[in-house]
Amino acid sequence: MTSEQTHAPDELEFTFPEADFVVRLSSQGSGDCETEWEVTVREPEPGLSTWWGRWHRTFPVHGSEAGPLIAEEVREAICRVRDMLEDRARGREDLAV
Known about the structure:
alpha+beta
């Protein structure tokens, strides 16, 4: 998985060739780590469509312990993005036949 990662104290950014993820973290009094996710997905040529999405995820750990869980969520999300783009490319191929 090739990506760039940047972060501010309460924000993480993951950049892949096909998608960018921004994760905003906040801890609630309960000790859970609340995260807000934003994704921008870029379709490669010839389509060049762009999609945006958002979701919320609560991890039942303190914010400082959420790293491995966030990493796993990123891995799963980029797999979903790649599957979606592959399905779309297959659909285009089917229409061309």
